[in-house]
Amino acid sequence: MRALNVPGVSIAVIDDYRIAWTGSWGVTTPEAGGQPVTAGTRFQAASIAKALTAVAVLRQSGDAGWRLDADINTTLKRWQLPRSEAQGEAAVTLRQLLSHTGGVTPGGFAGYPRGQALPGLVAILAGEAPAESPAARVLSAPGGEAAYSGLGYQLLQLALEDREGRDFNALMTDTVLAPMGMAHSGFFADLPEAMASDAARGHFGPHATPVEGGWRAHPELAAAGLWSTPSDLARFAIDVAEAYRGGAGRRLTPAQARALLTPQAEGMGLGVVVRGEGSHGYFAHSGGNRGYFAHVEMLADSGDGVALMINADAGQALASLLIAAVAQEQAWPLNDRAQLTPGRAQRLLAALDAARAPKRVLVAVPAGVLANYVGRYQLAPDMQFDITLADGVLQLRLADQPRFPLLPESPTRFFVEAVDAQVSFVPGPDGRATALVLHQGGRDQTAPRVD
Fold first, then answer.
1. Which residue in 367, 284, 354, 282 sits closest to 318, CA to CA?
2. Which of 21, 30, 241, 323 has the most CB atoms in a 10 Å sphere around its CB?
3. Are 147 and 57 found together in one domain?
């Protein structure tokens, strides 16, 4: 933890379909007001929200008669997904949205500073102010390749809310969280004040810089708005696994649980990552909001699993070590989970290198110089950088991804604090940039200016 600059970690280990033990280390934040992390400390679970949303949708497919292969628009009342040329005559279905194969605008959400006006669900889907993310549109043929789409899950949230006639946290608490015993979990754009004092604060970048305000707000509840603990995530995994093996009294019927874990495309089931035959019923999901990393995985056939939560987005490398240690100690039948594969080792070493690197020093760059860098730069035939200037800070956006601040360490070289990447601008004779160079992963990629 110290080597990777990880402030706090909490973990729950599952053995024989029960929580065998829990462990917590570190603090909610090393800043003033930090407290020891405990088994009850809440973290942002980020995209693991999608796995629980999938359970709610599958329950509706039984209780309310929803067909998973029905057009999503038949379940929506307040807003409709516009048709596009890309989809032709095909409908975008609930099953496709659950498996990220609906062709809907890909990508996740960057969140909002706490205290800022937050968009409602319809504004998020429509891409209207104050939403800062693109609109939900069908950009490729439904039923094709998997393309991870947070907006797809926002469509499912709208369907659930329209069906139930109440807010998402209330319906998820009644239909999923409370019945699974997830008493420390909830779907919140911002954590209620009563729960905030002892929650884990987020930390980003290789030097674990505290997230301003403690965390970013995520009004995109079904895609990224879950707060939880490892023990609660373990309870979710156990409930699904027990249903999968035919257990009664669970949130899903055995048939629904088998549908959840059936591979759809490129390793995706319905709301979870799966492996299919020979994987001992493996299912998993990770989550990574700014300042946090969370992961839960389960072997439904053997009853083995683990859930962990970390209050640093650099925690993925540590998570790999913890999962391998647990799988080895518990003698999981899925052997590769007990191994530190070359890919995991490479990520760990890269994270260690970043954590050991000297902390970058910001320099002042005149606004006139920054203005010379504003424009569009072509990195690849279908990929452009959009550089903008707001409140004296350059902002970088690649394609439809979120914007990231570019922080200056010289008049021409900038770095992105959230990821290990740097950008250099190549000025022309008049000072206006003619290209930028992306420095990332040991590679230098030049993107000529095109505007």
1. 354
2. 241
3. yes
Q: How confident is the model at residue 13 (pLDDT cuts 50, 70, 90)?
A: very high
Burial category of 353 from C-beta neighbours within 10 Å (exposed 0-12, middle 13-18, buried 19 and up): exposed
- Please provide the DSSP assignment of 70-92 as one string: SBGGGG-SS--PPP-GGGTTPPP
CATH number for the domain spanning 159: value is 3.40.710.10
Q: Considering the entire predicted model, what is its pTM?
A: 0.81
Q: Are residues 56 and 97 in the same domain?
A: yes
Q: Domain range spanning residue 70?
A: 8-351
* pLDDT (0 to 100) of residue 99: 96
Asked if residue 151 is part of any domain, the answer here is: yes
Contact 161, 176 (CB under 8 A): no
- Let me know whether 335 and 402 are in one domain: no
Residue 345 domain flag: yes
Backbone dihedral region for residue 14 (phi beyond 0: left; psi -120 to 50: alpha; all else: beta): beta
Residues 430, 289 share a domain: no
For residue 200, being part of any structural domain is answered with yes
